[in-house]
Design goal:
The chain has six helices and seven strands; from the N terminus they run H-H-H-H-E-E-E-H-E-E-E-H-E. Helix 1 crosses helix 4. It folds into two domains: about 70 residues, no CATH class; about 90 residues, OB fold (Dihydrolipoamide Acetyltransferase, E2P), CATH 2.40.50. The protein is globular. By secondary structure, it is an alpha+beta fold.
Length: about 170
């Protein structure tokens, strides 16, 4: 339910490098968890997508070359409210909160359930296409647990989404 270790490491390092550049921070100056900084950078990038190209230029000027796969993934970053429904055998199931589409996503080094401690919640997260799959960026925020009635309702919506062909597992890259 998560990326191969080498792919995960490449993705994590590239994501951190680019996101901290977007924010104007350097990792060696950060004490404590980097996650709040990544969430802030992700929000900033979502509001101003041109910052990605500017950050790449700044990094390259310092001879830091971000991984091209990570750059491509971040160009398609979707930050929004998702319903994390549950884990299946091969992926975690998230549904766009508008109930238009759903995805079987991989985690970077662990599943979403391991990050949040349960299933059935509304959350903000980033979704990217990376190495032919949909991947959650692991920066989970603004969570609200769903009660049993809501979970049943979202399970029904998932059935409808699957029946209409709007459940996606493989990503075109």
């Amino acid at each position: 339910m998560y990326l191969a270790p080498a792919d995960a490491e490449r993705s994590i390092q590239g994501y951190k490098l680019l996101m901290l550049e977007v924010l104007g921070e350097q990792e060696d100056r950060i004490t404590g968890s980097v996650i709040p900084f990544l969430a802030k950078a992700r929000a900033k990038l979502a509001g101003e997508p041109t910052l990605l190209r500017k950050s790449i230029v700044q990094l390259e000027a310092r001879n830091a070359r971000p991984d091209s796969g990570v750059v491509i993934a971040l160009e398609g970053l979707e930050v929004r409210q998702w319903v994390y429904l549950r884990d299946a055998k091969l992926h975690s199931i998230i549904i766009d909160s508008t109930a238009d589409r759903a995805f079987g996503v991989l985690g970077l080094t662990q599943g979403i359930r391991d990050i949040v401690g349960g299933t059935g919640l509304l959350t903000e997260a980033g979704l990217v296409r990376y190495r032919g799959r949909y991947v959650c960026d692991g920066v989970i925020s603004q969570t609200a647990w769903l009660g049993p009635g809501y979970r049943r309702s979202w399970n029904e919506k998932l059935k409808e989404i699957k029946a209409s062909g709007r459940f996606h597992v493989k990503a075109d890259v």
